[in-house]
Structures are given as structure tokens and as C-alpha cells.
Amino acid sequence: EPEVTQTPSHQVTQMGQEVILRCVPISNHLYFYWYRQILGQKVEFLVSFYNNEISEKSEIFDDQFSVERPDGSNFTLKIRSTKLEDSAMYFCASSERTGRNYGYTFGSGTRLTVV
Amino acid sequence: GIQVEQSPPDLILQEGANSTLRCNFSDSVNNLQWFHQNPWGQLINLFYIPSGTKQNGRLSATTVATERYSLLYISSSQTTDSGVYFCARMGRLTGGGNKLTFGTGTQLKVEL
Description:
By secondary structure, chain A is mainly beta. Chain A is built from no helices and 11 strands. In chain A, strands 2, 4, 5, 6, 9, 10 and 11 form a 7-stranded mixed β-sheet that branches. In chain A, strands 1-3-8-7 form a 4-stranded antiparallel β-sheet, with no helix packed on it. In chain A, β7 and β8 (75-79) form a beta hairpin. The radius of gyration of chain A is 13 Å and the shape is globular. The relative contact order of chain A is 0.34. Chain B is mainly β. The model of chain B has no long low-confidence stretch (mean pLDDT 92). Chains A and B meet through β4, β5, β6, β9 and β10 of A and β4, β5, β9 and β10 of B.
């Protein structure tokens, strides 16, 4: 079964540093997403990406965050200057299409720890 | 905003027992997904079920969209079923794609 691949699985970074989280969505999928989950809390939407641009972002997704699909296969989330409160599990997801018969496939997540 | 509530918040079962998890949502859905988050944090897709009933092995799910709820049934539970179960309501985004609004989760522990 096709998978969404995320790297790294764990990352520890110092406050103020930039991090890039990487994702390879399923190859025929058209819609790409980032979600995050702070420890012990529910999963929250960050951003959706379609046709090489952001289609919607949440209020969490401020100017410190950016996404990119640099080469047609990778999909990255960049945090420019990390804060302690950015510590969370970050999930990438993709879907083939929208509509009732198309669900999401999530990657295994990147656990980001900001110290 | 859209609310997705799950019950019970916590559940402890003996191996072999059956259980029903419930998900209530405050608005109409384009689709609804059930996920299992395993102890390593991975989100495993169980079902996407906008309406009706689906079955996959010991698990089945039913969504009654008109009454805005979904149920996940786990039969003959095993210790490997432990983890957090999330439902997520899928709504359309005007710019393209869908957005999942996750519920609060049910923490399940299955004991020997």
C-alpha cells in the first residue's frame, strides 16, 4: 500500500534555530497538508497546499512557517525561528482528490523538540 | 467553530471484550475518518465513512450523517488495539482540498 514518508522521525533543535521537516506524499495525490499535535492534545490543521500554492492556513500558521514543494515529489514545512511552544509531532498528509470517497493518508510524523 | 466530541474519553477493556466508541459532530460532513494512534504516535487510517457501515476484520464503523454521529465498534479486543482513537470530520476548503477537524480522542487500554 502506498505510504506518505516523513523525515526525520525525531529532531531536537535549539530555540531560535530554523528547521525543515520533509515529506514525500503519495505520487498520484494532488492535495497536501501539514498537521501538528502537541503532546497529549488533539491533532490540529496547519495548512493545505494544492496546485503549487497554499489553499488555506490556520491561525497557527503564522509568518514563521512556510511550505514548499521544491521538486514535484518532496513537500516541506519550514519553521524559521523555533520557539519552545513549537515542540510537537508534525504530520504530513496527502489525498488523491476531494470528495466523499477520498480520505487522507498520514505519514508517521516528525517529533520536534525545541530546547 | 465546528465541534467534534468523542466519548468515552478513556476506556479500559479486558482482552476479548467488545466496545463502542462514539463521535458526535456539530456540522454536516463531506466525509468522516477514524484513526488509531498507536503508542509510537503514528496515525493509522481505519475508515473513511461519510455514511452507512463499513467493516474491516474486527473493526466496523457506522456513520449516521443526518444525526451527526459516527460509531466505531471493536470486537474481541486485543492488547495491540491499545492507543488513542480519533475521529475527524472532513470539510471542504474553498481554496481546494479538505480540512480534517479532529475529535478529542478516546484513550483505549486493553489488558490481559
